[in-house]
Structures are given as structure tokens and as C-alpha cells.
Amino acid sequence: MAKAPSIFWLFTAVVVGQALTPSTFLTTIDRARLKSVFEAAIPVTDVVNAHYSILGLKLLNAPIPGAQEACKKITALVDTSSVSSLYHASGAAQALGSCKVDGSKAKTVLAEAIKDSSSVADIFYAFFAQKNLGMAVDNAKVQTALAGALKKDDSPLSYGLAFLVSAEIGGDVKKMFDSIEDIIAQADEVDEKYLQFEGGLYATALVIDAAYKLAETAKKAPTISEEKVVKFANYFMSRKH
User: Fold this and answer.
1) Whole-angstrom Cα distance, residue 38 to residue 57?
2) Which residue in 1, 60, 96, 99 is a FRET match for 129, CA 20 to 30 A apart?
3) Cβ atoms within 10 A of the Cβ of 225, count?
4) DSSP line for 209-231
5) pLDDT tens string for the chain (241 positions)?
6) Are the CB atoms for 175 and 148 separated by under 8 Å?
């Protein structure tokens, strides 16, 4: 999760030497505005906003204001009984680079969340929290739990989360990779110009980012047509404000 989001590779793929291009792009003014939005989340008041704001600033190659104080707040605010809180806090701490969340009280909580009766989201949170905290991860157990959880919830968002976990685990990802085309086919088209998933910007960005990351792990091109790539890019750019 520390890698730069591959959603930006999507834009690169469609603007060079292609007949179809996105309808707009991120200007320097847009980047400055986004930077101010991320900076406004600091001082830290909750681990979720801290996580996303720090990742956003890093993506823009911008300094993190008050990094040491942010680390103190993150480690103080983390709820060690919540897998989502542990995920966001550990992710934010890892992104800061010189910050560490104490996960000693969270090992049991995270391990118990990885089961097929859990939601896909909780398995995702627990898996990446374990990785961020430097804990041992049972990849086979994670894959089995994901397969069971997806039988109960096969929404695009759930598959997007599963794609990200599979991309991180690696190995034989063929079955998961083959699901990309089916998931992309579930996107809704708007005005013959945009493609998006139910759940809006978050769900759409996550699925596309995850599909590209999984494709990179599989060493294959993602099964998304050029026309759909442009329509997804148009949707993302339409939401930049």
C-alpha cells in the first residue's frame, strides 16, 4: 500500500500516442488546492484522515507539516481493538517513515479477523495492518478467508480490496486476475462519457487502482479496454473538485 497509486499510471497509458484522451487533467492549481486540503487534516484528530492526508501529501511530493506531532497523535488515537483503526494508524505511521505504532496488544485481534466469516474489508484491514506492523502473516489463511468472504459479498468494492491483498501476496494470482474483466463490466456508464461503480469515487478509484496493481503482479496488461480506461479517467477528473 505504500506504492504510488497506479491510478495515475492509467492517465499515462491513455495520453501518449492514443486517439482517445481524458477530457481534462490535474493542473498545477489543482495540485496546490489538493495539497491544501491534505494539509488541513493536520493537526491530526483521527487516524483515518491522518492516513489519507499523509498519503496524499507524499503522492504530491510535499512535506508533512508537524510530522513528529502527527506521529504522537496517531499512536495515541489508535484503537487496538479495531482492525480498521489499526490499519489506518499503522499505514499512516509507515507513510511518515519515522513513526511506529505499538501492535503488541493487537496480534490476537488481527489474527482473529482473518476468517471467512469476516467481511472482505476486515480481512483487508487485518492483513495490511499485520504487514505494516511487521507481524508474521499466514498468506494461505488470508487467501482462504478471502475466498469465503467473497462468496458472501462479491461487490466490485469487495473484489477491489481482494485484488489489493492478492497483489501484495503474489504467487499464483491467475484466478483473481481473471476476475478483473468481469468486475470492470459491472461499472455504470454515464452520458456515454464516464464509467463509475456504485459507491462513487472511493469505490471506483479503489477498484481501478487495485486492478492495475494486480495486473503488475501478474505481469500482464489489465483487461480494461482503451475506451473504458478513458471513461474512468474522465470520471476521476470530473470529481477533482
Assistant:
1) 6
2) 60
3) 10
4) HHHHHHHHHHTS--S--HHHHHH
5) 444 445 444 444 444 434 466 767 888 999 999 999 999 998 999 999 999 999 999 999 999 999 999 999 999 999 999 999 999 999 999 999 989 999 898 999 999 999 999 999 999 999 999 999 999 999 999 999 999 999 999 999 999 999 999 999 999 999 999 999 999 999 999 999 999 999 999 999 999 999 999 999 999 999 999 999 999 999 999 998 8
6) no
